[in-house]
Amino acid sequence: MNAKVISGEVFGVKGPIVARTPTYYIDFIFEKSGATYEHVIPAGWNSLIVCYTGAVRVQGETMVDSTEKNVAHFVRSEVDETIRFETVKDFTRFIMLAGKPLEEPIANYGPFVLNT
Question: How many beta carbons lie within 10 A of that of residue 47, not counting itself?
């Protein structure tokens, strides 16, 4: 298993992007099916998993597959939450995005969505 860390930290490696609001943007790469990994999402954060190659089972039940349902979203919890990943196919790749919500009003117009 390998990971490209864009933002956040995994395996003792910090990403080059430091956001004002804490975030994870990590690209996980698994060679074999049946591989497992657990990652802690801090209390109060939202998280999203996007599988773009292969398939991964999240929390032992939600299947995220690059050809069908390729996104899984987890709403914030009041306590730290450990998310468990298990690859179902060889050569599985997925991106984990997570972050602390800004709690600011949203302004949208046309294709643009911003905070105010």
Answer: 21
* Residue 60 buriedness (CB in 10 A; 0-12 / 13-18 / 19+): exposed
CA distance 85 to 28: 10
The full set of domains in the chain, from first to last, is 2-115 (2.60.120.10)
Instruction: Express each pLDDT in 21-72 by its tens digit.
Output: 899 999 999 999 999 999 999 999 999 999 999 999 999 888 888 888 888 8
Its sign, for the CA torsion 16, 19, 22, 25, is negative
Cα dihedral: 12, 73, 93, 61 (round 10): 100
